[in-house]
Specification:
Number of domains: 1
Radius of gyration: 15 Å
Distance between the termini: 39 Å
Helix content: 55-70%
CATH class: Mainly Alpha
């Protein structure tokens, strides 16, 4: 395990960590909401997907926080799970809570995809190249 400090992370890595943590929290909060709503919101497959999304987001954040070289793999998986979760949430019609989670999941998927493609490597591993180039992805607020 690398001994990384806050300054060892590229800006993209810090943003991705935050996006993963935001998505993790949103999935857990929405899981409770869905169980209270019942019906299609409480379908076992949907609840399982919310749980999977929360867990992979937390795992990806942890890998990046530890500066693990394997974070590109967890971020790749995270992007896939987040996209699937977003699609599942969007099918819930006009439910604003589900739309908000879908937005959060898609945003996390975008930053994790960039990390998995190596566009947000740790500074120490990429000598600052990720910080010098490319757009910074920031957390978008749901309207």
């Amino acid at each position: 395990m690398a001994d990384a400090t806050h300054s060892d992370y590229s800006e993209q890595t810090l943003v991705c960590i935050q996006n993963c943590q935001d998505c993790h929290r949103a999935c857990l909060q929405t899981l409770v909401y869905c169980m209270e709503q019942g019906g299609e919101h409480a379908a076992p497959d949907h609840l399982c997907l919310l749980t999977d999304c929360a867990e992979i987001c937390q795992t990806s954040a942890n890998f990046m926080l530890r500066a693990s070289e394997l974070h590109i793999h967890t971020c790749g998986a995270c992007a896939q799970v987040c996209l699937r979760c977003a699609e599942d949430c969007e099918r819930m019609g006009d439910d604003l809570r589900m739309k908000a989670l879908a937005d959060t999941c898609r945003h996390c998927a975008e930053s994790c995809s960039a990390m998995a493609a190596g566009r947000g490597a740790m500074r120490g591993a990429a000598t600052g190249a990720a910080r010098r180039g490319g757009a910074v992805m920031t957390r978008r607020k749901t309207r």
